[in-house]
Amino acid sequence: MKNDKNKIVYSGIQPTGILHIGNYFGALKNFVVLQNQYKCYFTIVDLHSLATNFDPKEKLKQIMSLAMDYLAIGLDPKRCTIFVQSHVPEVAELAWIFNCITPIKELERMTQFKDKALRQKKNVNMGLFDYPVLQAADILLFKAGLVPVGEDQVQHVELTRDIAKWFNARFGETFSLPEALLTESPRIMSLTEPLHKMSKSMGEKSYIALTDDAKTINEKISKAVTEPSGVIDEKKIKDNPGMMGAYNLLEMLRLLGNKKQYDRFRKMKKISYKDLKKAVAHELADHFELFRKHRAVLEKSPAKVQKILEIGARSARLEAVKTIEEVRKKIGIR
Ligand code: ATP
Ligand code: LTN
């Protein structure tokens, strides 16, 4: 992977209010590293976020909030392009073109659609169904080769590859096939329902937000679901929420880089979850302290953040226009 310097990296996150440690360990952590190795585009996918229930009064604040998160965690506008999806209108046009070559039955297979449709039964809208096609347009508009995401997005990247193949077969070689890039922890589990992935749509207590202060982290971690035996049996873990919860906490300790503590708990015959929780909460609060400080500074200069997004959109559009012109010619509308 590292040899192919010419590969383009693209990924996006929905502006829905908060970023949690699942987003960080599953995707964002990789963004920060990749910006030093490849040409990278990192987006705030506001159009995608319209498919879930939202308040129009909040949307701009959520967009700014995610932009500040990106910058505070270490994305550097000198090393990568950061922009808002809707500022590059070519993406919606490409999504429509892809709609016309994507069989409905392929979208019906998408597990994210099925999950989300169940979670928002009163709002199973067309956008939710078409969500992966818009995602394919995001990725292919920039001819990206690598897509850093968490495990839940792998199926969407596979569909993107299929869409690229269908397009190339019908209209001539245009897109190369992108690959998903996972971190060593592509699936952090919920604190309250550990058999499900940590997700912002499952309630505040189920996740640790990157902006949570030490006290909040402590409260949430101390209430995280575990089980009384103190034993983590990897064979039983898949169906045992308490064991999975405990394993998830242990994983966090490993990911936070405290190997000594991790090994100590791992070796215990009966793990003291009280001690484990204390250690995890402490490490989490420590790890994101600098992030919280940077973010507090950025909050005082929204105009600066806005400027970064404007410059990002301008630079992204230069590439987007090239691809869309090529696509229009290939499909015969120019
Ligand atoms: P939702 O609650 O709507 O499912 P989300 O919390 O999954 O939202 P997204 O904006 O959809 O957040 O995801 C941003 C990125 O974080 C994606 O690459 C996604 O795969 C990754 N991600 C999300 N949740 C986790 C998790 N629990 N573990 C690892 N990666 C995750
Ligand atoms: N669907 C993704 C967000 C997303 C994305 C993308 C990720 C939109 N477009 C392109 C990678 C590449 C999600 O829900 N996390």
Task: Kindly describe this structure.
There is one protein chain. The protein contains 14 helices and five strands. It has 334 residues and is mostly helical. The chain folds into two domains: 8-187 and 302-331, Rossmann fold; 200-291, Tyrosyl-Transfer RNA Synthetase (Orthogonal Bundle). A three-stranded parallel β-sheet has the order 1-2-3. Strands 4-5 form a two-stranded parallel ribbon. Helix 3 packs across helix 13, helix 4 packs across helix 7 (126-141) and helix 4 (90-99) packs parallel to helix 14. Bound molecules: adenosine-5'-triphosphate and L-tryptophanamide (LTN). L-tryptophanamide is lined by residues 10-12, 14, 45, 48, 135, 138-139, 147, 149, 153, 156.
Summarize the structure.
The protein is mainly alpha-helical and about 325 residues long.
- The CATH topology assignment of the largest domain is Rossmann fold
Secondary-structure element series: EHEHHEHHHHEHEHHHHHH
Structural class: mainly alpha
How many separate structural domains? 2
How far apart lie the N and C ends? Answer: 37 Å
Question: How many helices?
Answer: 14
Q: Which small molecules are bound?
A: adenosine-5'-triphosphate, L-tryptophanamide
Strand sequence of the main sheet, in spatial order? 1-2-3
Give the number of DSSP strands: 5
What is the percent of helical residues? 40-55%
Largest sheet: 3 strands, parallel
CATH class (first level) name of the largest domain: Alpha Beta
Radius of gyration: 21 Å
Q: Spans of 5+ residues with little confidence (pLDDT < 50)?
A: none
Q: What's the CATH superfamily of the largest domain, by name?
A: HUPs
Shape label: globular
Q: Can you give the mean pLDDT?
A: 95
